[in-house]
Amino acid sequence: MTTTDTIAAVKTTSTPSATSKTAGTVGSLKDFSSQSSGVRLVDITKVFPTPEGTGETIAVNNVNLDVEDGELVTLLGPSGCGKTTTLRMVSGFEYPSAGHIYIGNRDVANVPPNKRGIAMVFQSYALFPHMSIWENVAYGLRTRKLPKEEVIARTDKVLKLMDIAQYQRRFPNQLSGGQQQRVALARAVVIEPAVLLFDEPLSNLDAKLRERMRDELRSLQQRLGITSIYVTHDQAEAMAISDRVVIMKDGNLVQAGSPEDIYEYPTSTFVANFIGKANFVTATFVRKDGPAAIVRVPGEDVELVIPKPGKIEFKEGARCCLAFRPEHVALSRSGQGFPGQVTRATYFGDMVEYVVETKTASLTIEVNNPQISERFAVGDMVHAALDMDCVRLLADDAPVVE
Amino acid sequence: MSSVAVSALEPGIAPDRSPGKKVSSKTGMKSLNRLVRQPILLITVLSVFVLLFIFVVLPMFNVIKIAFSDENGFTWDYLIKGLSKPVYQRTFLRSIILGVIVAFTSTAVGYLFAFATTRTEMKGKKFFNIMATLPIISPPFVVSLSIIFLFGRQGLITRGLLGIKDANVYGLPGLVVVQTMSFFPVAYMTLRGILMSLDDSVEDAAFSMGASRGRIFRTVTLPLTMPGIISALLLVFIQSMEDFSNPAVIGGGFSTLSVDAYRIINGMNDMNMGCMLAIMLLAPTVCAYLLQKYWMRKKSFVTVSGKPTQARRKLHEKHIVYPLFAGCCFFTGVIILLYGTVLMGAFVQTWGVNYVLTLKHFSYVLTLGAGVIKNSVILAAVAAPIGGFLGMVIAYLTVRQRFPGRRLMEIASMLMFAIPGIVSCIGYVATFNTKPLLLTGTAVILVATFTFRNIPVAIESGTSTLLQIDTSIDEAATISGAGTWYSFRTITLPMLRNAFLSGLTYSFVRAMTAVSAVILLISPHWNLATTKVFALFEASQFSDAAAYVVIMIVIILAAMGIINLLVNLLLKPRAKAPSAEAVEAALQAQGSSK
Amino acid sequence: MKTRKIALALVSAAIALTSVSALAGCSKDSNQGGTSAAGDTNEPKVSKTLTVYTAMSEDELPAYATAFKEATGITLETVRLSAGEMVTRIKAEKANPQAAVAWGGATDSYINLQKDGLLDQYTSPVTANFEKQFLDPDGYWSPIYVGAIGFACNHEWFAEHPDLKEPTSWAELTSPDFKGEIAMAHPSTSGMAYTVLATILQLMGGQDVNSQESWDYMKALNANITQYSKAGSAPVQAAAMGEVAVGVSFAHDIMKVIAQGYPLDLTFPSDGTGTEVGAIALIHNGPADERTAAEMFIDFVLSVDGQDLYATNNTFRVPVNPDAEVGEGMVTLDQLKVIDYDAEWAGENKTNLIEMFQQMVDDGSNVKS
Q1: What residue of A is the nearest CA neighbor of B25?
Q2: CB neighbours (10 Å) of residue C255?
Q3: Which domain holds residue C254?
Q4: Residue C301: inside a domain, yes or no?
Q5: Residue A401: pLDDT above 60?
Q6: How many helices (H) and strands (E) does chain A have?
Q7: Where are chain A's structural domains?
Q8: C-alpha torsion angle, residues B547, B549, B553, B555 (rounded to 10)
Q9: Same domain, C119 and C256
Q10: Beta carbons of B154 and C241 less than 8 Å apart
């Protein structure tokens, strides 16, 4: 083992032995000049045999993704969407059925997980129960056969960074959940990996702690500048920590973009509904008017002008779907908008959530600052006015609104 | 090799493939491909295959060859005879009936002890632990003999205490008792490992949800320990099927396949038919084995997730602990009685007749038997670490690694365990009596027999423990940069400590106590204590035989202590953390070097 | 960390030590063979050691080893097996036999081996004055002792049943009074039990394998038998421990148990009993350098010195060398009514008779529990 012993080496060239090995086998395909530690997935597909062994299921279907150097990308989606499988293919624990994965421009198809120069934080933490905290954190350094002093120094640095140095003699089962989480994180970052993978690392913590750890984790990642891929099913978590969010569904990558992008310009009702809440109103596309779109909502005998409908093209007369967030609707007792009746009002402190039945749809509406804004009661007749700038036009495959 | 991976990139394959074998075969190739990338793993897998091929597959092949050939070459005769003759059909059925009954009784008793000593705060747990492992440490026919002495027609208890004149211990009921007492320790050791590593919080969670203790046991503990239970059932079933000495001594008219195989080989000198019976014996065993694997594959039993939980108080409610305690006491009493009988037999003039105390049998054994006892100890001491370690390696490979032929490895490692000793002997002699594999007369052939006949116990306890440990712990080690071997040594093996210990102990003991499995392999230089005991037993020198057994028990107990000590020392939890001074020094050294 | 390293070192040391001694043990074998072969190239090769498979009792062996060493300087190395196991082992090893001599066990085993061509002819000069009826006409094996079938009767049991007397004929064994009180080995596993079967067929059926009278007798006997044991010695143990009243076995096996102090009497069937002749032979293709030593050992076992060891060993075996001492308590054949047991006939019909026995007598369905 001639593993590198400095951070820079690990980050940039990865281990020489692994490199040369790869070069010898698939060297003709790729160039190794780049020093980037980004991750690139090209046409990745993963097929599993079904448990009965009779057929196959496609867990990940033809996914393409570029993760820039230093970027934190979140794979978000409901369970079974293929996000964890994708992560495990990057880690090397699963091998793609088709497609290529590049870490820092190196095709890692034939690189085993322990030679990929990556680290991973597991959902269950996967701390070694028979080792002290110090041994747990130092483990990755010791596998690299680094000099003793360096192991001690680097471990100590990370233990202090994570504020767990005082527990170094304890065993994992003597720590609280948050402390265990820090140990897991410390163990991952101590090897200064080229890429850091997170597999739902916060799902075992209670809500308060989760938020705090989330912020710690994000600031640590930014400070160290480690390229990271983060898997979660919690959209708030994804929004809070990501440079970019990738939304997956049934093995397919359905949308990728910055949190703002995803929230403000969902390209499907699935994404609109999965990230935050959304109302969907079925409509008929009338025509285009420059960038704006004009639609007709059945039952409301008006044509609506939508200035920023998004990128989806419709034929004239086609069915489409208006999507808008609950906070983008204004309620009034009289005035513009769809007339309707309040059927539910829920008080949350920072806002009140109303459900209003209109002729065409049941709308969820959030009114902020209930202390200073007008309040409505169940049974009140109201008008719901949409902020047309925030309405998007999507294909009409609206899911049943829960 | 790399071309395989590259070809996957060819256009048109990825998106809308028709589901078919194309991908599966590719995955198979890929697992092979991956193996080639991990030289240490590859070498290990290959070495295990080579060892299994030489010491299991070749001898088995030779046994099969003998069963399917006569002077004129290949023949179905023996198979037809074996299947069609009512005598064999009946024996076959009886072997299975006995195996099933004993599998359940032994596992039940083993579970009782394992549960009591790991999950409760009962008094005397250490003592019960020793008592539950005691019965594996002597040749099984000693238990039969003790039962006859105690409960037979002239039994100390039946005749002496109860005045029953025509007590009969022969036949199925006696055999069930004897085999249960002989084999429950195997179930105990398998189950103990799994119960110890069972995460307390799972039970706590159920308890906090208001479930009663009984309900928790039924709905949580029992299902979670299923892999261990199934393993134990399988191991005992196989052992009962394979057991020769107990049915031979106490079976009465209840003859089993392995006794028949012995009888046909040594009595009728019909090696072919004997080998055929052994192969017939394999059929239910392999079926049971495959059934177990099928059943286990469908379930996941992870309870050691690497998400540590705080230590907690174990079961202490009186209404639970007392009955368990009583149960343990009862079986311990039986064990003490059985072994006490042997112990007493060793110190009296003539067992069964003259109860004047004497040490003459010990001086007989120590003058005539020192050499063979030394041989037994040496061979067991060599075979046990090899078997225990190889067992862990195979368990690790088959549970945690993916490579072509994995299932083959699992099955091959089981075969030698499942065939009667005399037949495995024939296979070994047929394989190792001629060049290039000339091993007869050497210690190597005995070590190999011990290793490969006993390894399944280590594999099974390792497997069931591994199935309970979340793979992410292994993955965490791998992703931290550990290669297969390093990860095995620093993570897997320490976490398998209890299973490893069971495997080592069992291998050592069985090597010390094997009888029919070595009868054709011993040589003048490598004669063993057990064959002497068996010979003395046949010559009715019961007290001398008992003295041998007592001395062997003492040696085995000492060896178990040493094994325990070494394993604990080697695989103890790593509590290390550097002192403040060391950190300071390291930081300075780092600083100055930069 | 330090303790771990020490422990590791200890374990490796232990393993290394044991392996080395194991290997040393292996090389010891070859060395002894090798040096003796090399050292004695000029003279007729006489190995310093001799490997023997034997079915004699464990406790008899040391005396032979000592006496043979004194007489010839050759170390006797024995592997003790039951007679059946000995035959199996010689058959299994026939490609490369590991021993030079087969010693002990009845002649049927030797006839069996000879049929497979696994014995070498050797006629010891010592047998010149032996009775011809004991000798193998082809000279493949030599007789070493004779034994007669007898009944081991537990006299404590008979004391409790004063109306019954210890059986002294085959017929008495089938009496309903002895239901569940007779122990015998199974003819398929025990040469001794097969001798009983062959004796009955010769006594009652005049060597007619289908003799109704003989098989009726065996069926009647079967009704009284608790279990057919594997080993021929087991019935004696059963009787010794009072498990049964009567055990059928060879006289010398019974007398050995009596000598240990068990409450047994030895009786013989007055209507004629069967005998076994113990034998010794050279194994075909055995280690070449041990050949001379093997012949020397056979001569020794047959010699007066060798045969006298039966008496000094308290084995109660009856010597076949007419000049050997007949020990105290030994029952010689001239004291009994012995049938003219045809070992050749018995050997030829063994498979057949045992199959008939299993079909007609012990069909295994009568589990006696």
Answers
A1: A97
A2: 22
A3: 147-275+334-360
A4: yes
A5: no
A6: 10, 20
A7: 7-117+193-264, 277-395
A8: 70
A9: no
A10: yes
- Best mutation target among B480, B484, B485, B567 (most A Cβ atoms within 10 Å) is B480
How would DSSP label each residue in B412-456? HHHHHHHS-HHHHHHHHHHHHSSTTS--TTSHHHHHHHHHHHHHH
Is C26 inside any structural domain? Answer: no
Domains of chain B: 23-304+318-574 (1.10.3720.10)
DSSP string spanning A7-55? HHHHHHT--HHHHHHHHHHHTTT---------EEEEEEEEEEE-TTSSS
Based on the fold, state whether residues C168 and C192 are members of the same structural domain: yes
CB contact under 8 A, B19 and A98: no
The verdict on residue C51 lying in a domain is: yes
Q: In terms of CA atoms, which chain A residue is nearest residue B486?
A: A143
Cis check for the bond before B436: say yes or no (omega within 30 of 0): yes
Same structural domain, C100 and C157:
no
Q: Which residues of chain C have pLDDT under 50?
A: 1-3, 8-9, 16-42, 365-369
Residues of chain B with Cβ-Cβ distance to C350 below 8 Å are: 268
Q: Which DSSP state fits A316?
A: T
Distance from CA of B482 to the nearest CA of A (A): 5
The DSSP bridge pattern shows strands A362-368 and A292-296 to be: unpaired
Closest Cβ–Cβ partner in B5, B307, B589 for A125: B307
**A349: which residues sit within 8 A by CB, 6+ positions away?**
A370
- For position A248, what pLDDT does the model report? 93
Regarding an ipTM greater than 0.90, the answer is no
Q: Which CATH number fits domain A277-395: 1.10.720.60, 2.70.150.10, 1.25.40.10, 2.40.50.100?
A: 2.40.50.100
What is the Cα–Cα distance from B198 to B118, expressed in whole angstroms? 10
SS3 A124: coil
Q: What is the nearest CA distance from B243 to chain C, expressed in angstroms?
A: 14
Question: Chains C vs A: touching, with 3+ CB pairs under 8 Å?
Answer: no
pLDDT above 50 (res B594):
no
pTM exceeds 0.90: no
Indicate the number of domains in chain C.
2
Same-domain pairing of C221 and C194: yes
Partner B contacted by C199 (CB < 8 A):
no
Quick: pLDDT tens for A50-59. 766 677 888 9
CB contact under 8 Å between C28 and B166, yes or no, is no
Of A88-102, B68-82, B233-247, B308-322, the range with the lowest mean pLDDT is: B308-322
C327 and C351 co-located in one domain: no
- For residues A133 and A185, give the distance between their C-alpha atoms in angstroms, rounded to a whole number: 12
pLDDT of residue C231: 73
Please check whether residues C188 and C84 belong to one and the same domain.
no
pLDDT score of A60? 92
Strand ranges inside C206-300, DSSP E: 225-229, 246-250, 264-267, 275-283
* Tens digits of residue pLDDT in A146-164: 888 889 999 998 998 888 8
C112 & C161 share domain: no
Q: Are residues C174 and C267 in the same domain?
A: yes
CB contact under 8 Å between C29 and B441, yes or no, is yes
**Beta-bridge partner residues of C185:** C229
Kindly state whether A168 is in contact with chain B, defined as any CB-CB distance less than 8 angstroms: yes
Mutation target to probe the B interface, by most B beta carbons within 10 A, among A125, A133, A198, A226 is: A125
Q: How far is CA B514 from CA B103, B106, B137, C13, in A?
A: 21, 20, 10, 26
Taking the C-alpha atoms of residue B412 and residue A134, their distance in angstroms, rounded to an integer, is 41
Rounded mean pLDDT, B188-194: 82
Task: Say if A359 is an interface residue toward chain B (CB within 8 Å).
Answer: no
CATH 3.40.50.300 fits A7-117+193-264, yes or no: yes
Helices A177-189 and A148-161: angle between axes, nearest 10 degrees: 140
The candidate with the shortest Cα–Cα distance to B519, out of B191, B217, B266, B206, is B266
Specify the CATH number for the domain of residue C118: 3.40.190.10
